[in-house]
Design brief:
This protein has 503 residues and is an alpha+beta fold. The chain has three domains: 81 residues, no CATH class; 234 residues, BirA Bifunctional Protein, domain 2 (2-Layer Sandwich); 90 residues, Alpha-Beta Plaits (2-Layer Sandwich). The protein is built from 15 helices and 21 strands. The strands form six sheets. Strands 8-12-13-17-16-15-14 form a seven-stranded mixed beta sheet. The protein has a four-stranded antiparallel beta sheet with strand order 19-20-18-21. It binds phenylalanine. Phenylalanine binds next to strand 16 and strand 17.
Amino acid sequence: MSYVRYSGSRLKKCKNPPVNWRRKNQNLSLSSDLPPKGERFITMLIQKAFSVSRALSTSRYLSSLLSIQMHTANLPKSPYFSFYSNNHCNFLKSKPLSIYLPSVSFPYCTSSLSLGKSSGKGGLPIAALLEIGGVKIAKDDVVKESDPTNNVPDSIFAKLGMQLHRRANHPLGILKKTIHDYFDTNFPGKFEKFDDLCPIVTVKQNFDDVLVPPDHVSRSYNDTYYVNSDTVLRCHTSAHQAELFRNGHTHFLVTGDVYRRDSIDSTHYPVFHQMEGVRVFSPEEWSGSGMDGTAYAAAELKKSLEGLAKHLFGDVEMRWVDTYFPFTNPSYELEIFFQGKWLEVLGCGVTEQAILRASGRTDIVAWAFGLGLERLAMVLFDIPDIRLFWSTDERFTSQFSEGKLGVKFKSFSKFPPCYKDMSFWINDGFTENNLCEIVRGIAGDLVEEVTLIDNFTNKKGMTSHCYRITYRSMERSLTDDEINELQVKVREDVQNKLKVVLR
Ligand code: PHE
């Protein structure tokens, strides 16, 4: 996978763009002097980009595809982007191009999703100022209601700085410590631990530095929380790899909270925790082995991670599955046969040389792995719902203590669910993640699941979705009135913010 990064040298300010595009009735039309080939090419790109999502992502998507830089600074006021191309598009070479996107709404921007007061629900009040790893973070730095390049709601800000993985008696802290112990025992004094690195990182750290392709879906506003167009809440702990390589670290474990926009069910939550492990080898280490560096690192990787899986799960059956990650080659997933099923434990591989080269090292190889702590803790401690990790209910928290991996969680009685269905005609910009964020913003952790239960398109081409929302508290019975009130608010917000038509 290779892509050309924008060099910046051709960027100039564009005052009077000579080429204009207008979007009318969902179709793009051209009012310009572009040659036909260029016209077709750009139309295809824009349509493709629109099918992925809408304006902001479109600008990112196009800029990455064309390897150009868009000017989006005045986006909220004037609905157009303008950009200069580099030498990838000959027909654009000397011309700045503007794309007009009139009346584009941003259903996923913060202003429509931040739901103020309700986000403290069931938890602690939201602090206005946090400190993570020595970095002071004010709420206004992360949640910017009027900035369309920001899609971080209050409910997500409320999770920043919680650092569940640093609580010694929390299942995630217990699991982290157990993994640390494994590496300390097998590689005494070698692995450095980082668990306080700030989750607010640049797009470059999160994606570019680890070779995530420009059109990779994880970069979209639908999948990632953007603080602004250059800054995100990390969506994986791999965001720290390049910097740690650059700073000369050779053996390290990074644990942290990561953020992904997602659907709602018992195993998905927009904030979860990952651990990244990395080990570097120098030529002396593999020269005597008869293998090349990559083969040697792959063999060492498998040995170390099979040992880790045994340390966590006992003597289980394991298998390696080939997979793809942009930052490793070869790449694998480790699966174990546990409680009657194959369970994916982690992703890993041999670090791409381009990442190491960029950090100034040409003579080394490295392995890297990433694992989701919740996923493993749910299995090891028998925790049935991912929301429980955030519970402050003593009936949950008192069941776990430092050093005790695998103590089985005893459910306190399960409270009855309450189902509410809602149907609406969707529009082009509709995504399930946006819907889930609205529901989560209103109902907080009272929402257990959002499921699409019906989907059809009528003769006029209008598509209807029906979603079933399951409300259930893990701590108490909910009253009808309480749920009805939430549901009314959900319906209102879904209609107003996602611009869908309720049926
Ligand atoms: N970052 C990957 C993820 O989030 C996991 C991973 C890390 C895979 C390191 C390979 C190497 O899915």
